[in-house]
Design goal:
about 400 residues, alpha/beta, Aspartate Aminotransferase, domain 2, seven-stranded mixed beta sheet, three-stranded antiparallel beta sheet, 14 helices, 14 strands, binds pyridoxal-5'-phosphate
């Protein structure tokens, strides 16, 4: 049996995805296809490393050893052809916390931060909850394929109050792996208007074979100094519950500023299990990740074939990265509220409503397909039955 086919019971493990269904959807039976974690086992080499550390009876304060940094450096070198030095790596207890810390470190209250919607919705709150202003550079969409509206982006970067462009690279939820020229163009505009570029690259290891991730900070000398890169093994290896991630900041002055903020909030310690898990992931993860991507590709193809054959009303472009599908449901002609109700009540499925991803998200649903294909088939059949019912 393919290990990714195994159904793992996650109920009653305090899982957000499973155990908050009643609260979020008002119904605990929905097949959960929302929160971006996977229903697959975290790889055994990570489990073993955590268990080994857990067997030592003292869980006191701990440091990050040289081997921790080496594992990141080697992974970045091999996987992304990016030369990272130990001194460039700064800790954060999660990518979103890292984003918030960087916003506190590099911007002032009232500054304007540009995001590209529809986008991972905590970007909005990271900005607004911290008294910064949001400028939305809506992505362009044609036939379910998304590109950047550079003319609008320039207008927003030109605003003297704009200090940061925050991108999702690759992009959640639209699934684009930004091409090098797109990133270069964004960088050049940031340079022109003296804006920092925050690049959230948490999904950068989950790239489908025909595509290539470009670390934006690795493009040229200016990028090195202008970019703050946010990375983590959490999405790749299904270990988000360990709250372990890091930033790469190549500019020494900026690194000092970030570290000062991290220390000011006393958040630099991390946790012993996250540290060993990260190291195990990056030292051993290459082959496992290849199997994972094969499986995810099969799941994407499964949805693609199923929808084309049975539900042509729902369309999408196969993602270039991530296990999140951005389903265009506009031809069902339902309001966002009704669409969400339809998925919950009629199809018994728990997806994220596209509307929470901001401007451009209306009429879409985000479906997480990182689950055994048998679960995915059940979900698709439920959706078909529900749609057949409304078409009667
Ligand atoms: C683009 C993006 N950034 C950050 C996160 C979450 O990161 P963390 O849990 O480390 O805060 C996610 C999770 O879905 C994401 O999609």
């Amino acid at each position: 049996m393919n290990p990714f086919d195994e159904i793992i019971i996650r109920e009653n493990t305090n899982s957000v995805k499973y155990d908050l269904r009643q609260l979020y959807f008002g119904k605990k039976e929905v097949i959960p296809m929302w929160v971006a974690d996977m229903d697959f086992a975290t790889p055994d080499f990570i489990q073993e490393a955590v268990k080994k550390r857990a067997l030592h009876p003292v869980y006191g304060y701990s440091i990050k050893p040289k081997s921790y940094f080496d594992s990141i450096i080697t992974w970045m070198g091999k996987r992304h052809k990016w030369e990272v030095k130990r001194k460039h790596i700064a800790y954060s207890p999660g990518v979103v916390p890292g984003l918030v810390l960087a916003l506190m470190a590099f911007t002032q209250a009232g500054d304007k931060i540009v995001v590209q919607s529809p986008v991972y919705f905590p970007f909005f709150n990271s900005v607004l909850d911290n008294d910064r202003q949001l400028l939305v550079n809506k992505l362009l969409e044609k036939d379910n394929y998304y590109t950047i509206d550079f003319a609008d982006l320039e207008k927003k970067l030109k605003d003297p109050k704009t200090t940061v462009l925050l991108i999702s690279n690759p992009h959640n939820p639209v699934g684009r792996v930004w091409k090098q020229w797109e990133l270069e163009k964004m960088l050049n505009l940031c340079k022109k208007y003296n804006v920092l570029l925050f690049s959230d690259e948490i999904h950068s290891d989950l790239i489908f074979p025909e595509f290539k991730h470009t670390v934006v900070a690795n493009i040229n000398e200016d990028a090195k100094n202008r970019c703050i890169t946010f990375m983590a093994p959490s999405k790749t290896f299904n270990m988000a519950g360990l709250s372990t991630s890091f930033l790469v900041i190549q500019d020494a002055e900026k690194r000092k500023i970030y570290e000062k903020t991290l220390e000011a909030y006393h958040l630099g310690m991390g946790n012993i299990f996250g540290n060993v898990a990260l190291e195990a992931a990056y030292n051993n993860g290459q082959a496992w990740l290849n199997y994972l991507m094969d499986y995810l590709q099969q799941n994407v193809d499964l949805v693609d074939c199923f929808l084309k054959k049975n539900l042509p009303q729902i369309t999408f472009t196969k993602p270039e990265a991530t296990y999140l599908l951005w389903l265009n449901c506009k031809s069902l002609h339902l309001t966002d509220k009704k669409l969400q109700e339809f998925f919950i009540e009629k199809a018994n499925l728990g997806l994220n409503s596209g509307s929470i991803f901001g401007l451009g998200g209306s009429g879409y649903m985000r479906m997480n397909i990182a689950c055994p294909s048998s679960t995915l088939k059940t979900a698709l059949n439920q959706l078909q039955e529900a749609i057949n019912e409304i078409n009667l």
